[in-house]
Amino acid sequence: MAFLTLNRKKFQENFNHLKNMFEENEVSWGVVSKLLCGNKLFLKELIDLGVKEIHDSRISNLAKIKEINPDIQTVYIKPVSKRNISKMVKYADVSLNSELTTIKWISEEAVRQNKIHKIIIMVETGDLREGVMGEQLVDFYAGIFELPNIEVIGLGTNLNCLNGVMPSTDKLIQLSLYKQIIELKFNKKIPWVSAGTSVTIPLMLQKQLPKGINHFRVGETLYFGVDLFEEKVIKGMHGDVFELYAEIIEMQEKPLLPTGTLAANPQGEITEIDESLYGRSSFRAILDIGLLDVDPKYLIPEDGEFEILGASSDMLILNLGQNPKNYKVGDVVKFNLKYMGALGILNSSYVDKVVSE
Fold it and tell me: Which Pfam families match (predicted)?
């Protein structure tokens, strides 16, 4: 069976690198755990790093975090559906919100549960996912700041999540100005401007982060050490905290081209024929992992001498050429992963999860 490893030492070093960076810049932060898909083994590793605040987009994952350590501050990071408000208030200390009606429902539920629920108002800054339009923000805040059992602790935004709009100093300054306007108009203190995510970290590294930005929500850079502006690993961090291992379950020398009448495969793909390859062959390996677990485009082979030809639901096909490294049935092939690849595998119950030193 294929298995995924989390390297404890590299994970700790990535965390310490970010922790030191945020402390130097006097910025608070929480870790986004949605990549871990509620895996208790890996959640415990995350909590053992010393994390005080964890963000997730699944209420069931927040429930597991509270089960492991009730003292962790939990943050629900997408608009909550009406039918899930009760569970969300129970397991999330904070939530990100952009709908007035929903916040009123949250207030009613918080009263029922005798809890103070904290709110970060999400503001639209151009990527066109969730967020209140800037010109409507003052009226929006006026509609919620006196609701019972609701405490507005921040303004936030998301960038690069839908249309790929990158954060900029100007956009972040604008968000800081919104905070100042609200504080002056309503004589209320808003502690956080939560505009930092992994994609904002390069602005901090380049000393271009406005001083008003004082809270980050970080996932990808912790797990993959990546600078999302330049798409390379940040110096002092690790890009291979996660590694995937898959076993060769068939090894045969076969023609490079299929034979017979061609039609669409189950994925709707039709093979294109390169006639120059007729009569040629190569060694093909089949691995015990497939599309149910991961999209092959998110896999990075450690051995750069073979190519991924494709996948079916449960098998991945490699072209090993003339097999110069003499791979054989039973051997294990290692891959590094892109973020979406790790997400798919962590969401798969068919791939074992292991902690390595």
Answer: Ala_racemase_N
Q: Are residues 271 and 180 in the same domain?
A: no
Residue 258 has what pLDDT? 79
Print the domain residue range for 158: 8-233
- pLDDT on residue 357: 87
Question: Does the pLDDT value for residue 122 go beyond 90?
Answer: yes
* Residue from 19, 34, 44, 78 carrying the catalytic annotation: 34
Judged against a pLDDT cut of 90, whether residue 342 lies above it is answered with: yes
- The total number of structural domains that make up the chain: 2
Q: Is the dihedral of CA 281, 287, 293, 297 positive or negative?
A: negative
Using CA atoms, how far residue 189 sits from 77, 102, 192, 196, 303, in Å, is: 22, 22, 9, 20, 54
Domain end residue (candidates: 187, 208, 233): 233
Q: How many CB atoms lie within 10 A of CB 96?
A: 25
My answer on whether 253 and 347 are in the same domain is: yes
d(CA 125, CA 171): 7
pTM above 0.85, yes or no: yes
- Is-catalytic flag, 82? no
Domain assignment present for residue 48? The answer is: yes
Q: For residue range 56-101, what is the model confidence (pLDDT) as tens digits? A: 999 999 999 999 999 999 999 999 999 999 999 999 999 999 999 9
Helix (H, G, I), strand (E, B) or coil at 81: coil
CA distance 59 to 77: 10
With beta carbons less than 8 A apart as the criterion, state whether 45 and 10 touch: no
Nearest 5°: phi and psi at 29? -155, 160
